[in-house]
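Record format v2
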Amino acid sequence: MKNYSTQMDAAKKGIITQEMMHVAKDENITVERLMALMSEGQLVIPTNKNHTSLTPYGLGNALRTKINVNLGTSKDCLNIEEEFKKFQTAIDLGAEAIMDLSSYGDTKRFRRELIARSTAMIGTVPIYDGLVYYNKPLNEITEEEWLDVVEMHAEDGVDFITLHCGLNREIAEKIKNTNRLMPMVSRGGALIFSWMEMTGRENPFYEHFDQVLEICREYDVTISLGDACRPGCLADAGDIAQIAELVTIGELTKRAWKKDVQVIVEGPGHVPLNQIEANMTIQQSICSGAPFYVLGPLVTDVAPGYDHITSAIGGAIAASQGASFLCYVTPAEHLRLPNTDDVKEGIIACKIAAHAADVAKGLSGAALWDYKMSVARKNLDWDTMFELAIDPEKAKRYRKDSHPENPDTCTMCGKMCSIRNMKKAMAGDHVDIMD
Amino acid sequence: MKNYSTQMDAAKKGIITQEMMHVAKDENITVERLMALMSEGQLVIPTNKNHTSLTPYGLGNALRTKINVNLGTSKDCLNIEEEFKKFQTAIDLGAEAIMDLSSYGDTKRFRRELIARSTAMIGTVPIYDGLVYYNKPLNEITEEEWLDVVEMHAEDGVDFITLHCGLNREIAEKIKNTNRLMPMVSRGGALIFSWMEMTGRENPFYEHFDQVLEICREYDVTISLGDACRPGCLADAGDIAQIAELVTIGELTKRAWKKDVQVIVEGPGHVPLNQIEANMTIQQSICSGAPFYVLGPLVTDVAPGYDHITSAIGGAIAASQGASFLCYVTPAEHLRLPNTDDVKEGIIACKIAAHAADVAKGLSGAALWDYKMSVARKNLDWDTMFELAIDPEKAKRYRKDSHPENPDTCTMCGKMCSIRNMKKAMAGDHVDIMD
């Protein structure tokens, strides 16, 4: 019998768990520092007691930036095989988390199989699943039923769940009374808002937050406090609705910590580049350093088809300024459900952002990867360059498609290659592009 | 007969040129402010007197961020038709500048045709062309011959030329004596360094800088002071060689201004995200606000195949912090000469970075594009979304490949679409995903 409930509880009690040892070793920090951060809520290890295949990962500003991959069935795309392909792509490319956002079909079966197979942590948004599970009109779902879905996901082994607990009636009024261009772009938030409007009741995840905490504590599910009011366009960034909800989330964060429940906080959204740092700073102060999980942020609204890039820009800045967990965005965002190719592109862009931020933060060992790549580049050692590339397959394919006359150089510069010429010049040799 | 030599000379004399009027109108600033900035060197309008097809664009921190597209023949890829396809892609996608980096074949003919056709400003690196033009060993090219190539390009109508004037013998010694991982990754810089090493002479573009200025003044060619010592890997960023060269460039900038020659300054390179702001600030102080033209910066070395993304991250930050001109980077960087598809991807990524920065700087009108897109998104007005998209073709194609049951929404969310549901909920209507 374990003498602690959650990883946070263990940390507070000074108990070193296996998960802590694993993460400390993986991240090259001491278990003591890890525990101190965990007991203060600034670092979490989402690890549902029922997710036995999990490789534990830590989320926190002091650690490597982690990335999440969304997948799941929808009514328009009910292709289980394709979703498992996306899953495999995510695992192969090293994503630390996968959110199953399924909203159609046999979601329970899919979720259980996913959890059984996944070494990455699994997150869900129980609200979506409630609609599938009960298969009845939204306004007829009861408060108990909403909470039952949370318990069902916890029991199935979900490591973190997004709940839009901060969207209480007070915040909903602000949404109605402020002149937002896009009132709410959070899918789950809009459903809860609609439910509240139709039933006239308080958000059940806010009203019965203590009950939610009990469930999370029992299975050690990390709560991801969803930002229903995240800005869905630059024009709404940093407005009253967003920040008011963040304040509520900050209060809920502390209530969760008192019950030893691990918390991460979700963040924007669409944010102009110059507002990202302020967003990170304010979240860290309001939520006392709870790990920040950002959805982007996208630095412009005008690039559908390229939102993996708009969010890589925002994500890199966010992670270098305090965010510890990036949700990937694919080129399909705002256009369609991503296919497996989109998923791959989204993951790579997100990994670039995460790594760039880790280097910027001066994280121990992060720049070593770049250093090794540069040594290989300096030596025109193509095999090692491919091996170290974030996507060896694409790098190899690109080079293979071209035919440099000199096998050492590439078709960009040929014998004008600066690496080639400097090697000779620094050695005092004759340099020419004619030989 | 014009009563001024260069645009800068005109600005100093208080003469309003047609180019100034065009740029002021295009950028929505007063001609008075434009002239004041131009007379202080903080804004340039590269416009060679012999480039008659040019649409004048201004470069400067106070204006929209501009982008440059590199193209040109090489020994490995001598396909004039493909290069003109790249040219057309650049023009169609709104690139304001094109650098012709041709290093093989009938470069003179290609350059002249490019200039005759191009509404975008044209830049070149005469050093590359010197090797083609004289067709003799590098060390046998004389100082006069190097300068003659500059004059030839000026006469042909090139609007801005990159010359690595800052790489004098003192800086070359620093390159040899500091422990850089990658001594020099600038193609032109490495050629000049090699020429200096082999001949034992001073860099002709440094030694005869006054003569260079005479040529530039005569044709109103803007000098782009090349950064031969730009870091080629994160490990070398911000080192002595880079900053020492920047100091020299700062001195040369002021000498150019005295002769009324317009100047832009080239910048890194590979730079960790956390060093970008400092780079921009230092360049602006050392070079007294001369427009900064950055090559990236790339925020990690590990992503060959995705360097349009690594540089979009760096470019967006750089431009938001002071850079006014971004050189695109394509997915082919570090691997091969880009093809037309690579060029397109590079341009779009660079445009995203430039626009995100313009929004961040609060540039008049920049955020209006995002606003309009968001209004269309809020209205689920797909036609307008496509029209406003940075790449309408890709956005349309992505959506067309998917088949949403509801023509208003997309396959990502279907009836769970937050826009759809909030529209109903805000209007007090019933919301359901079953209908």
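Strands of chain A lie at 43-44, 59-60, 66-71, 97-100, 121-124, 160-163, 222-225, 263-267, 292-295, 325-327.
The radius of gyration of chain A is 23 Å.
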